[in-house]
Structure formats: structure tokens, C-alpha cells
Specification:
It is a multi-pass membrane protein. Keywords: Copper, Copper transport, Ion transport, Membrane, Transmembrane, Transmembrane helix, Transport. Belongs to the copper transporter (Ctr) (TC 1.A.56) family. SLC31A subfamily. This protein is mainly alpha-helical. It folds into 2 domains: about 45 residues, no CATH class; about 110 residues, no CATH class. The protein is built from 4 helices and 2 strands, in the order αβαβαα. The protein has a two-stranded antiparallel ribbon with strand order 1-2. The chain is elongated, with a radius of gyration of 28 Å. The two termini are about 40 Å apart.
């Protein structure tokens, strides 16, 4: 088993990265020579200078780090609120679909329908069924766009957690907690 704690003489701790003190040893032995300048950390750590999403978003002070954590809390609350709102929209779309009436004209024995019989032979039925609903621009396009937004926010939060920064991780959890307290009762099946 490889020993990742020993210093192999590499200068990764002097590179000024936000992961100082987490020398992973000589990564070339593992076939990871194409890694970026940041070493790969597999344990949680606490640093106030961890980049978020790009190197240009690196907090330079404790205040900037707190602002970044607050941003992550708000982003997680937003994701939870949008998920609950999508559930509400799905319920509205299902109710609208259930109220949609289908007009069925009954034909006489010859297969034709006369104008006199038209008023008598029409039946109005409400759609009842569990099968797939017909495709509609007014429902499926907004649903797809909404899902793209939800997926994008989810991946941004996943990337924040994958930095392995404890503050970022706790901020995302706090945002989900507050979001669930605020709007969780509106979400069904999520």
C-alpha cells in the first residue's frame, strides 16, 4: 500500500495552493501526472482560502470566506425551494389535465352521423387513466427548462462539496436544512 504522508521531495507545499500541508506524495507513480496544480485531497479540511468553482473565486479573507459560505447556503435554499415549486407545478399540470374534457361522437349503425343526431349522440368524458399524458408545449417545455435549472444548481452544489472544505460542506447542509424547514411541506415525492 502506498504511503501518501511522506514527503518525496516534491515542491507541492510551496506552490501556494489552498491545500497546504496535504502533500499526497509522488503522484506520478499512480499515473496521475496530468493533475492540476492543486493536489487531490480525499479528507475534509478547513481552510479559508479554498477556491470555489474556479481559481478566480478564491476567498482572500475570512469575510470573503463567510460570504462564500452564505452564498452556498442561499444556493441550497434556492434549490430546495425550486424543487418544491416544481412539485406544485406538477400537481397543477396534473389537475389541469384531469379537468380536460374529451368529446366523443357516437356513430349510428351505418357509420355516419347526421346533423340531427349530433346533439343527441355526443358524450363528454373526463380523462381518467394512469398512462402517459399527451405531449404539450405548455407543460413539457417549462418542465424541461425547470429540470435543466435544477440540475445545474445541483451540480454546482456537488462541486462545492467535492472541494472537501468543511465550511462549504456544512453550508450546503445548512441550506438544505433551512430550505426543507421553509418549503419542504410543499414538495411531494422528492
Amino acid at each position: 500500500m502506498a504511503d501518501f504522508t511522506r514527503n518525496t521531495g516534491s515542491s507541492s507545499s510551496s506552490s501556494g495552493s489552498s491545500h497546504e500541508g496535504h502533500n499526497m506524495g509522488n503522484m506520478d507513480n499512480m499515473g496521475m501526472s496530468s493533475m492540476s496544480s492543486h493536489s487531490m485531497i480525499m479528507t475534509f479540511f478547513s481552510s479559508t482560502k479554498t477556491p470555489l468553482f474556479s481559481d478566480s473565486w478564491t476567498p482572500k479573507s475570512s469575510g470573503a470566506y463567510a460570504g462564500t459560505c452564505i452564498f452556498l447556503i442561499i444556493l441550497a435554499i434556492l434549490l430546495r425551494a425550486l424543487t418544491a415549486y416544481k412539485s406544485v407545478l406538477e400537481q397543477r399540470w396534473a389537475q389541469r389535465h384531469a379537468r380536460r374534457n374529451i368529446v366523443i361522437a357516437k356513430r349510428n349503425s351505418t357509420g355516419s352521423q347526421t346533423d340531427d343526431e349530433e346533439e343527441e349522440t355526443r358524450a363528454v368524458e373526463t380523462f381518467v387513466g394512469w398512462g402517459p399524458k399527451p405531449w404539450r408545449w405548455s407543460v413539457d417545455l417549462p418542465r424541461a427548462l425547470f429540470q435543466v435549472v435544477l440540475t445545474g444548481i445541483s451540480y454546482l452544489l456537488m462541486l462545492a462539496v467535492m472541494t472537501m472544505n468543511v465550511g462549504y460542506f456544512m453550508s450546503v447542509l445548512a441550506g438544505f436544512f433551512v430550505g426543507e424547514l421553509a418549503v419542504g411541506r410543499y414538495a411531494r415525492g422528492s
